[in-house]
Amino acid sequence: MFILEKPYVSELLKDTLNKMGKPILDNAVARGAFKASPTPIYTESDFVEAYNKDRTQPVYSNSENTIDWIDNNLDSGDLPRKIRLFKDKGAFRDLVRDMYPDFFYRTVKLEKLDSINAGELPIPCVIKPCVGFFSLGVHMVESIAGWQEAINAIKNEVEQIKTMYPAKVLELDNFIIEECIEGEEFAVDAYFDAEGNPVILNILGHLFASSDDVSDRCYITSTEIINKHHDDFQSLLQEIGKRAELKNFPIHIEVRTDGRGNLGVIEINPCVLRAGV
């Protein structure tokens, strides 16, 4: 089952869905993408009915903008809970707390940020929305003085950012403060199959311009990168999938490795099957 949303539906995705003939939710984006195609589009009620007949079947999307619709319409199954587990960075940290017993993180309300004593934080650290998207609202803090600068920047950004994405994609009431994870960063697209086994689709090295760069601009990959890291990342995904009971579930995970077998998960984004679409 597929739900299409802005910002982009690629030609490859349209061609693939034309060949598959799987249910596609009727909305403005789907009608625009398939206006000259015989591909069937399901009304909301028919789509929900098809999902309820088999709640274990995969639901894929090209955009996190679909999360709000899923939360409101597919709530008879377990999908919204699993999406929320990974969209909420605080909930995810709780899930893997014993995997990283010495890792510092703290969740805090937006209005309470001014009351945080920066001297009690593991500087450098990062502060970001608990439910975030791309690098919006994310700030590196490299000194105690830089803490207040980050808080001031967040306050200035909040109202502007709220107009950009649905609330389920980006929530700015709660933030999480985390210690910085050192090492080389990678982005991994994967999915869990019907038996709960993780299948890695790609591994991308994430390059940054500087230590305080948090952008998503530059990624690289190669046979060497994939061969070097595949098995370690596979084992990590198996453990996370077991804890979250994931089946027929696509994810995008960002992870850092220190080159000595120690892996630190930055975050996991759910539901969107990015690779090749």
Overall description:
This protein is α+β, with helices and mostly antiparallel strands and 277 residues long. The protein has three domains: 2-77; 89-179, 2-Layer Sandwich (Dna Ligase, domain 1), CATH 3.30.1490.20; 183-270, D-amino Acid Aminotransferase, Chain A, domain 1 (2-Layer Sandwich). Helices cover 32% and strands 24% of the residues. α5 (79-87) crosses α6. The longest helix has 22 residues, at 223-244. The radius of gyration is 20 Å and the shape is globular.
Question: Strands, helices and their partners?
Answer:
Blueprint lengths: L1 E2 L7 H10 L7 H6 L10 H10 L6 E2 L5 H7 L5 H9 L1 H7 L9 E5 L15 E7 L7 E3 L2 H19 L8 E9 L4 E9 L5 E10 L10 E3 L2 H22 L4 E9 L5 E8 L7
Parallel strand pairs: 1-2
Antiparallel strand pairs: 3-6, 4-5, 4-6, 7-8, 7-10, 8-9, 10-11
Q: Summarize model confidence as the mean pLDDT.
A: 87
- Share of helix among residues? 25-40%
CATH class of the largest domain reads Alpha Beta
Gyration radius, in Å: 20 Å
Question: Looking across the biggest beta sheet, what order are the strands in?
Answer: 9-8-7-10-11
Strand content: 15-25%
The SSE order reads EHHHEHHHEEEHEEEEHEE
Notable traits:
single chain, 277 residues, alpha+beta, Dna Ligase, domain 1, D-amino Acid Aminotransferase, Chain A, domain 1, 3 domains, five-stranded antiparallel sheet, four-stranded antiparallel sheet, 8 helices, 11 strands, 24% strand, disordered C terminus
